[in-house]
Amino acid sequence: MPNLLRGKFNWLAAISVAAAVLVSALLYTQYGQTKPGIKIGVLHSLTGTMAASETPLVDALRLAVEEANQSGGLNGQQIEMIVEDCRSDAAYCAQQAEKLIMQDKVQALFGCWTSACRKAVKSVVGKHHHLLFYPLQYEGLEQSPDIIYTGAAPNQQIIPMALWALQHQGKRFFLIGSDYIFPRTANLMVKDVLLAQGGKLLGEHYVPLGASNMTNIVKEIAAQRPDFVLNTLNGDSNLHFFRALHNAGISAANVPVFSTSVAETGLAAIGVDLTNGHYAAWNYFQSLDNAVNNAFVARFKRRFGKDRVLDDPMEASYIGVKLWVDTVRSQGSTDLALIKTTLAQQTLLAPEGIVAVDYDTRHLWKKAYIGKARADGQFEIVWQSEQPIHPAPFPFYRSRAEWLAMQQTLPGVQP
After folding, report:
1. CB 207 within 8 A of CB 234
2. DSSP category for residue 307
3. Helix, coil or strand: residue 370
4. Strand 379-384 relative to strand 369-373: parallel, antiparallel, unpaired?
5. Residue 33: pLDDT above 70?
6. Angle 374-389-168 (CA atoms, 0-180°, nearest 5)?
7. Backbone phi, then psi, for 176, in 5-degree steps?
8. SS3 label, residue 64
């Protein structure tokens, strides 16, 4: 072959190789990992006194994220979870929220359990005009344009439970809780409604988060023999409380306990022999028998193990991601101002039933349920509201200013 032709073929070969490389790159760009992922931040305690309660919520969030990614992600982009351990420390959790927003550039935050943690993170989210999904029932007296509250306000959980207990168990009641914002504020509301209905308060005690010595309180319960105990303890203090009741010979048959923070995962951690026959109020129970929940439970067990259980805070975490994903998909954007405006009008057919974001308060309309703990670690539903309940974070019988002023005077509540 003449040298001239040989040179021409060499150039053609080089061009062909270059073209093949270019096509491969374009194909990879189109079908491979073409766009950077959309990041979300997860703030839950994986260590410390709240770890047993909060760790399962990360799995619920992970399931929602994986399902969204499997169904196409967000407009072609995959969701990436960045999980930070709050270490059962509100101040540290706020530091991690700052890091997630400023360094990791997350598009939304999902997390917190205690009100102290939420309030610490709320300050960070407000400073950056960011977005937090908070999945826990809580004491109310708060609303923020930067937070979607997927848990219950007091009129959707603790108040219906207290009134039901008064009607079905008797008028003499005893209060025990952890010494921070939620128990003290919620019990202020409980005393309002129960005393107005002829209830009689026999005792009221608060212990630090993580407290394990319940002997003296249980002795007082044994001596007073209330018709029921309303329990707002959080974290692993619940294990010590129910164990102390059991050791003192106090059973659900003679002094039933109505809990606000003991769900299915709590029953498993405490032990069904200690909790059988006691009560809890939530907006979701795993035992709810509807098609959406049955499918949800089946998917979760396939992903994380057949012996795992679901509870209300887990479901509330899951639906927080679902609401966010639906909103981003509908708008084709992650612009925070647009997303927050659109979120305030969202509805969702959730495992617990239909939920809707209340435009004014950013809380969800939710049904309320009361369950009785069974020996199999599940709850038998003994009461449910007829319809989803409108969230009322500021109960109507006092002004907002009066509520906030009263809350600041409570022991254990920081300004």
Report:
1. no
2. T
3. strand
4. antiparallel
5. no
6. 45
7. -135, 140
8. helix
Cα R_g (the chain), whole angstroms: 25
Running DSSP on this structure, what letter comes out for residue 263?
Answer: -
Q: What percent of the chain has pLDDT over 90?
A: 86
The amino acid present at 250, given as its one-letter code, is I
Q: Which two tokens stand for residue 310?
A: 């679901």
Copy the structure tokens of residue 95. 């530091």
Q: Which two tokens stand for residue 63?
A: 């399931």
Q: How far apart are CA 233 and CA 144, in angstroms?
A: 26
Return the structure tokens found at 365: 């309309």
Residues 6+ away with beta carbon under 8 Å from 75: 328, 329, 332
Distance CA 372, CA 228 (A): 14
Closest CA to 266 of 114, 7, 118, 52: 52
SS3 303: helix
- Torsions phi, psi for 117 (to 5 deg): -65, -45
Position of tokens 């009741």? 245
Distance CA 412, CA 288 (A): 36
User: What pLDDT, on the 0 to 100 scale, is given for residue 150?
Assistant: 98
Check residue 32 and give left, alpha or beta (phi > 0: left; psi -120 to 50: alpha): beta
pLDDT at 414: 53
How do residues 319-360 score in pLDDT, each as one tens digit?
999 999 999 999 999 999 999 999 999 999 999 999 999 999
Residues 349 and 337: their CA atoms lie apart, in Å, by: 25
Phi, psi for 128 (deg, rounded to 5): -100, 5
Q: Is the pLDDT of residue 232 over 50?
A: yes
332 CB-contact burial (10 Å; exposed 0-12 / middle 13-18 / buried 19+): exposed
Residue 180 CB neighbour total at 10 angstroms: 23
Does residue 256 register a pLDDT over 90? yes
The separation between the first and the last C-alpha atoms of the chain, rounded to the nearest angstrom, is 90
Tokens of 120: 């610490």
Task: Please state, in angstroms and rounded to a whole number, the distance separating the CA atoms of residues 121 and 141.
Answer: 16
Q: Where are the alpha helices (DSSP H) in 332-399?
A: 336-343
The answer to whether 406 and 185 have CB atoms below 8 angstroms apart is no
Residue 22 has pLDDT above 50, yes or no: no
